[in-house]
Amino acid sequence: MNETPRPMRRNEIRAMNETLILQAAEKVFAEAGFGGATMQLIADLAGLPKANLHYYFATKEELYRRVVQNIFEIWLHAADSMDGAETPAEGIGAYIDAKMDISRRHPEGSKVWASEVMHGAPVIQDYLETTLRDWTAGRAALIQRWIDEGRMAPVDPQHLLYMLWATTQHYADFSHQIETLNGGKPLSETQWNAAKTNVKQIILRGIGVL
Amino acid sequence: MNETPRPMRRNEIRAMNETLILQAAEKVFAEAGFGGATMQLIADLAGLPKANLHYYFATKEELYRRVVQNIFEIWLHAADSMDGAETPAEGIGAYIDAKMDISRRHPEGSKVWASEVMHGAPVIQDYLETTLRDWTAGRAALIQRWIDEGRMAPVDPQHLLYMLWATTQHYADFSHQIETLNGGKPLSETQWNAAKTNVKQIILRGIGVL
DNA sequence: TCTCTTCCTGACCGTATGGTCAGATTGCAG
DNA sequence: CTGCAATCTGACCATACGGTCAGGAAGAGA
């Protein structure tokens, strides 16, 4: 019956509890939406009293904002996979891989993001208008360059990007529907690979690089 | 300053108010999610007192259920466009057209559906397991037949369907993001056509029928 | 050890929300 | 015209939720 013996440092306590809360919050926000989520539910899942949540995050909005920002960071990092590619097939293929992996390992985050955007992006509108817009413009330019050099079929870069986002994120956002249509079982390792292969195959052939 | 003179029939009253409420509800549920939506907001948008809503729909859940069911019906009808096609290109092309049109004219419905599925389909789980599963199996079989006959590239039918859903619904579910990246303006007629063309082009070429 | 700051939490509060209900109004059948 | 059932609604209620706070526990620095 021995307790954890080592006393915790201030830093550790703060870091640990913030992480605990953010993880619980991400899950609850994903499952219930902002309006449906309650601080009590998040607290229970994090194993902390509700009042403690308000010690670390003043309001529900602030907690939500932090969750959404975290997700955004992750996605931006994944985007790097598209850069420094020798060929369009490599670049876009790697991007699809990266986004499919995120959908698999981070489905809650994707759902929170989708929910946020669907509800009019009340808290991350400025991100959309600055960071995301810049990122999108940059990649669209890259794709346009590839097209101009005749290395892929002439498609609208913007709409190609939408297609990449839509297709990959669908596996996270609609995971429940996919699971149901899969006999109630989550996709297996093999099925995930099949999904990834199919997406890449159709899109890469679709833009004329296969 | 003349009022509408004609007194309304019972049937008309009921039909009209139910429609009014359902339309308002669809919009509010789409914008705020189930948890964030309030009966008061729906009532205000419908121009009726809140108590009147509860006269036609006993509970918030019941109203929500009706909204979701309506959407499901619309989608099922759209699916007919895939049948009776001479070629894969025709069938899938028509299905893309139909779903893109729904995304454009019925974006709220798509959002409500997405939200419902993301939250674990609490009210339409049985539809997923029966109607949708059957529909999906049927179309997957059709696609497989096309593949077996060598009329299109050998792709996984199930994942192709997911791709069609994802790509087309993205234009409804993420309309806010798309609008923001479009300089804050909704897609124009021309841009919608470009979107449709691009989606069809990439996917149809992707499955080897272009 | 003593003091200060951070961390923690049970109890509490104001408000908003889903839902109820009694009673008024109005179309409708006979 | 009359009685009945459908429609309507302001006022009300119980509950759940986000947020507060006073006061206790526990590391940190001297």
TrEMBL record, chains A, B:
GO terms classed as biological process: negative regulation of DNA-templated transcription
Q: Which Gene3D superfamilies match?
A: Homeodomain-like, Tetracycline Repressor, domain 2
Transit peptide listed as a keyword: no
Top-level division of the source organism's lineage: Bacteria
Boundaries of every HTH tetR-type domain copy: 15-75
Record keywords: DNA-binding
Q: Which Pfam families match?
A: TetR_C_3, TetR_N
Task: From the record, give the transmembrane residue ranges.
Answer: none
| InterPro entries in the cross-refs | Homeodomain-like_sf (IPR009057), HTH-type_TetR-like_transc_reg (IPR050109), HTH_TetR (IPR001647), Tet_transcr_reg_TetR-rel_C_sf (IPR036271), Tscrpt_reg_YcdC_C (IPR013573)
Record has DNA-binding as a keyword:
yes
- GO molecular function terms listed in the Swiss-Prot or TrEMBL record: DNA-binding transcription factor activity; transcription cis-regulatory region binding
Where DNA binds (residue ranges)? 38-57
Q: What is this protein called?
A: TetR family transcriptional regulator
Organism this protein belongs to? Gemmobacter caeni
